[in-house]
# Entry
Amino acid sequence: MNTERHAIDQLLGRGTIAYHVAFAAIGGGALAGLFLSQLYYWDDRGQRADGFIYKTQDEWQRETGLTRRQQESARKQLKAHGLIEEHKHSVPARLHYRIDKAAVVNALSSLAQPYKLECTKRTNKHGGSVQTIPETTTETTTETLEDRPRKKTRPPTPPAVKTFRHWTHCYPAKSWYTTLANAIGDDPVNLDKWGQIVHQWVGTGWNPRSVKGMLEVYNCGWRNPSRGPTPLTSTNAVLDKMMAEAETAAR
# Structure
């Protein structure tokens, strides 16, 4: 059995998400609870300072298994309970989501007690009572988890690093984390500028791991390395000129 369980774990991979039963209780059902659980997971992992998260319906389905109709049903329930907010951002407009944490706190507080599995009984074919969950299961599990040594809490990933990851699909070396955090901070304007630079850098075909080069552009602007700052104001024009000069030099 252990071998079979190990095989199942290997086949499942990392597709496990944290499902909070209490979210189903306050959200109106299991679908709403599943959607809210995954949105809660992403709450402090997004790139926007205002807490809004962008995900396509396909991404929601890959992560939760919820179909388009199930997602719409879950969102409708959660909005009816005032637990999530939706807003269209960017151009073209894309639907973003955010948990109303104050409303979630109030809803969870209104529950009679911390939500947990209850011991239930059913009748077997002989008329006797069959206990489906041992009475000690919840208590024993809780005690065991509390006795385990807690893992060290990792410091939050700087927003500038998340932006870098979004456009390059890779993380910079951790030695850059503090530098990026200090240089760019968490101001939305600075993060937007940084994101445009990283996006254009990668789109030009330059080394996507050259954090130093991108920071130089962020601090000094796009310039010709041999002639100093360029008088051109259009970023696209600067890129075209630099690439043309590079091709000429290669000949």
